[in-house]
Design brief:
Blueprint (H helix, E strand, L loop, with lengths): L8 E3 L2 E3 L3 E3 L14 H12 L4 E3 L3 E2 L17 H11 L5 E7 L7 H4 L4 E2 L13 E2 L2 H20 L4 E6 L4 H6 L9 H4 L3 H14 L4 E7 L11 H11 L5 E5 L21 H11 L4 E4 L6 H9 L5 E3 L1 H6 L3 H6 L91 E5 L3 H12 L3 E5 L7 H6 L8 H13 L3 E3 L6 H6 L2 E4 L3 E3 L11 E4 H5 L11 E5 L5 H12 L3 E5 L15 H10 L3 E3 L2 E7 L2 E6 L5 E5 L2 E4 L3 E3 L2 H7 L6 E4 L9 H17 L4
Parallel strand pairs: 3-4, 3-13, 4-6, 5-6, 6-9, 7-8, 9-10, 10-11, 11-12, 12-13, 14-15, 14-17, 15-16, 17-28, 19-26, 20-21, 20-26, 21-22
Antiparallel strand pairs: 1-2, 18-27, 23-24, 24-25
Length: about 700
């Protein structure tokens, strides 16, 4: 099934160990503007996992192009590129240095200088007006590409990739939306791209790969680049290129480049097929576009859609993707949530994944002492403290841990102690999986009738795909011999009697704070999505209360509207789903709600319920209005289900225990998985067989 996907391929005379590409993306792993040791470990993990081609984070070719705080600068990347090459080459992985310039889609916040662009067209997102480039600025950019390529070649890379994607200056010159020039770079919009390819080819020669990431569809048919335009550009460039990655997106559709699960996966199949047919074997084509399923990726290769597949987010989720597929197992799934892997964010988060929330570190810090007050492990990123399994180790023998290839030491022969994991949500499942992978005996006790916790109970409608992660964790636990007890509500006595305990009891709904006369029923989002409350029928007025601004409120409103109810959303924010800006779904979510007929009550809060009506108060003016309703769905914050945590913390139990996930503080899946992993590490660190 996966013969072509996992087979070797040759590019510019260089052999890649598979046809899977780890594409260029922001990581925030840099130090100042250089690639760091974290980058090296990050890319090496994918190489060790079977990746065929690694494209490093796109580095700016000019110092005044500084699109985000930790954006690499090619002039400073030589030592980093060399380290990545030395780490990846032993695994048979080709390393391409990503090179680019962001033009008007950069930022002046860090450079403190003007943005340069083909024409004075303000960026749609930042609204900043760039300066039009003259001949001198264009010459400086071309020199920057040549000099940057020379630095990369001196570092020993296998080639370079030029960025002409959704946020690239090279695309801005190609596009009628952003290039309004009347000179030779306007009458011939592809001129700068041809010149950039030419100067870089002169530097890298013919024995290294020259790749191009090209936006082949700006999704702006009224005036943007179309697939036919891209095909003509590529026909002209074919003799100079070895590899082209077909992407989409432009100044008005940047979020369409790497969308979340609302956009069907494999969305660039037809553009890639058309490009490959036009190039007729002259240039290898890479399929990009939410390619996260190995089965679908393999079918695309078998069907002749492309020569390679870019599975970037899939390999953020599971660095061992190719190796796992070769072994006949399912890799850890990417659920296309964009919650941890999109890091173009003022908070400067490190690249991560909700299912594998551990960025690369060379030397994980020691585990901190347990809090004396509550016994809760204060979990942080990469505080796993696991030691690598020795080569040939027979103790457990299962590699099952995250991006930094760490694994806990296998249990000593004859150790009979059992770990009780209370709660089968993502935190409990991850703790059980990691512990079982080392040979520990593990038992999960879950009060519900299925594993998965709140993820499983709320994974309906547009969130259904999220359950793929907890399903995978559950399957891995069963494969590793974890004993599962469903519909089992653990008592304090069981905690006291256990050898060791992971408390992952999750969360409970907060008490509804608004008084009412019972004329309007109040339910939680989990009750509705889990089917514990009947879905409101057509004609019923339902209000969704969303003070969080995350995906739950939006998803609940969409689900209710789909069921035929008359739905409104009340939020204190000026826009619905404010937190969705981080995942790229903010504008699309509001569009979906508007098309579904969902009413939006912005800058408002619920202050009263009586006589079948809900009273709203404007958060700024204090003005009050009432709306007829039959039900209110509370999508507010939940509270820790910490009864057992408090019992253990009070010293009733002398057993070794760790709390993880929502029972510490209700947050996201990423924190739950991270803390479940660290909880297993803490127990193992203190384990005495």
């Amino acid at each position: 099934m996966f013969d072509l996907l996992t087979s070797k391929t040759t590019l510019a005379g260089r052999i890649a160990q598979s046809r899977v590409v780890f594409g260029a993306h922001e990581t925030n792993l840099g130090v100042r503007r250089s690639l760091s040791s974290r980058h090296t470990l990050y890319y090496e993990a994918r190489a060790r996992g079977g990746c065929g081609v690694v494209v490093t984070e796109t580095a700016s070719v000019c110092a005044d192009d500084w699109p985000y705080e930790r954006a690499p600068l090619a002039a400073d990347c030589g030592p980093g590129w060399r380290a990545v090459v030395e780490a990846c080459r032993p695994h048979g992985t080709l390393v391409l240095a990503g090179l680019g310039h962001h033009g008007s889609q950069g930022s002046s916040a860090y450079s403190q200088s003007v943005l340069w662009a083909p024409s004075p067209v303000a960026d749609v997102v930042s609204r900043e007006m760039p300066a039009e480039m003259g001949e001198a600025e264009i010459a400086a950019v071309l020199a920057g590409f040549a000099e940057s390529a020379a630095v990369a070649v001196a570092a020993g890379v296998d080639g370079v990739e030029l960025d002409a994607g959704p946020t690239a200056l090279l695309r801005q010159f190609l596009s009628p939306l952003t290039n309004l020039r009347l000179d030779r770079y306007g009458t011939d919009r592809a001129r700068l791209l041809r010149e950039a390819v030419g100067v870089v080819r002169d530097v890298v020669g013919r024995d290294r790969v020259l790749a191009l990431r090209l936006s082949c569809d700006e999704l702006a048919p009224w005036g943007g680049i179309t697939v036919d335009d891209a095909v003509e550009h590529l026909r002209t460039l074919a003799d100079s290129l070895d590899l082209v990655t077909v992407v989409r997106g432009g100044p008005t559709t940047v979020t369409r480049y790497r969308p979340d699960h609302h956009v069907p996966a494999m969305f660039n199949v037809e553009p890639a097929r058309k490009v490959r047919a036009a190039l007729a074997g002259r240039v290898a084509v890479v399929l990009q576009g939410s390619v996260v399923d190995p089965d679908a990726a393999s079918r695309a290769l078998d069907d002749g859609v492309a020569d390679l597949v870019e599975m970037t987010r899939a390999q953020i989720a599971d660095p061992d993707l190719v190796r796992t597929v070769r072994a006949g197992r399912r890799p850890r799934p990417c659920v296309l949530c964009n919650q941890e892997c999109l890091v173009r964010d003022p908070r400067n988060p490190l690249v991560s994944c909700i299912g594998n929330p551990t960025p690369a570190e060379s030397d994980p810090p020691p585990l901190p002492a347990r809090s004396a007050e509550r016994g809760v492990h204060a979990v942080g990123r990469d505080e796993c403290g696991f030691q690598p399994l020795a080569a040939g180790s027979a103790g457990g023998g299962v590699h099952a841990v995250g991006q930094d290839e760490c694994a806990v030491q296998p249990v000593a022969a004859g150790a009979a102690r059992e770990v009780l994991v209370v709660g089968g949500g993502p935190a409990g499942l991850e703790a059980a999986r990691v512990l079982a992978a080392t040979g520990r005996r593990v038992r999960i006790a879950e009060r519900e009738s299925r594993l998965g916790g709140m993820v499983a109970r709320t994974a309906v409608g547009d969130r259904e795909g999220l359950s793929a992660l907890t399903d995978w964790l559950a399957d891995e636990c069963l494969r590793l011999g974890v004993r599962v007890e469903l519909c089992h509500d653990v008592t304090a006595a069981e905690v006291v009697a256990a050898d060791a305990v992971v408390l992952a009891t999750g969360s409970v709904a907060a008490t509804w704070p608004v008084p009412g006369d019972g004329s309007v029923s109040v339910h939680t989002a989990a009750e509705v999505t889990a089917g514990r409350q009947p879905m409101p029928g057509a004609g019923n007025g339902v209000l969704v209360w969303d003070p969080v601004g995350g995906p739950v409120g939006v998803a609940t409103a969409e689900l209710l509207a789909e069921a035929g109810g008359t739905v409104g959303v009340v939020t204190p924010d000026p826009v619905l789903g404010t937190q969705l800006g981080r995942t790229g779904d903010l504008a699309d979510a509001n569009g979906r709600l508007q098309r579904a007929g969902v009413a939006r009550h912005l800058r408002s809060r619920i202050v009263g319920i009586a006589d079948g009506r809900v009273e709203l108060e404007h958060v700024h003016t204090g003005e009050r209005t009432t709306i007829a309703a039959t039900a209110v769905i509370d999508c507010g914050h939940r509270l820790p289900d910490d009864d057992l945590v408090r019992i253990a913390g009070a010293g009733v139990s002398g057993v070794g225990w760790v709390a993880a996930g929502d029972c510490v503080a209700p947050r996201t899946v990423a924190e739950a998985v991270r803390e479940g992993r660290a909880a297993a590490a803490e127990l193992v660190a203190g384990w005495t067989p």
